[in-house]
Each structure stands twice: as structure tokens, then as C-alpha cells.
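Notes to self, DUF2007 domain-containing protein:
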Amino acid sequence: MKELLRANDPTVIAFAQALLAGEDIECFEMDVHMSILDGSLGILPRRLMVADDDLIAARAAMRANGIDVTTDRD
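result:
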């Protein structure tokens, strides 16, 4: 699995998941419960992961809908 997106904003993660579902790309959200460790402040980002084979298509879907994804985490 590869990291597609890292964000502190849960609405960005939810929007990205909906976009990926519309493209039939499966994703997995990591670090969902890490806010327990930081006192529920939401300062630790969540990561959205996709399969290696879906990474290029997922990045294209994100960029087409205005979500910034970085490519330096390969």
C-alpha cells in the first residue's frame, strides 16, 4: 500500500474516500484513533492509503477534484 493523502481535516479525508469509491478504488484510512494520544486535539494527521497498482489513478482523481496530493512519499 502507498500513502495517497495526509490531512488533519477529517472532511478532506471523507471527500477523498467518496471520490475514490466513485472511481472503484479501495482505500484504507490509517491513524484514525491517534487523536487519543494527542488529547483529542486533532494535531496528528490521518493517512489515506491505496494499493500500489491504484496509486496513479487515485492521484489523478484527487488532482482533478482539487485535492493536493504530494508525490514525495513513494
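- Residues 10-22 form the longest helix (13 residues).
- The helical segments are 10-22, 55-64.
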